[in-house]
Amino acid sequence: xxxxxxxxxxxxxxxxxxxxxxxxxxxxxxxxxxxxxxxxxxxxxxxxxxxxxxxxxxxxxxxxxxxxxxxxxxxxxxxxxxxxxxxxx
Length: 89
Prior knowledge:
Layout: E1 2-8, E2 14-15, E3 24-25, H1 34-47, E4 57-63, H2 71-75, H3 80-88
Antiparallel strand pairs: 1-4, 2-3
């Protein structure tokens, strides 16, 4: 099970992860571990920019594998099939 993190503001947008100049976007930056997020927050603290995250939430996303399929099965009925078939020969 994989866990990733994002920082979300009160308008529902996500931090771009730039410690020097945070901007907010629809998708934002993903931190792949809590220690990496902590490094980012520490950098913001030392730059004096951590206040930009006042009122924000740290959102944790948890991923689990739902199914495992062979690549042939996964692309069979998609637009990728024609592309994939030419390399399979």
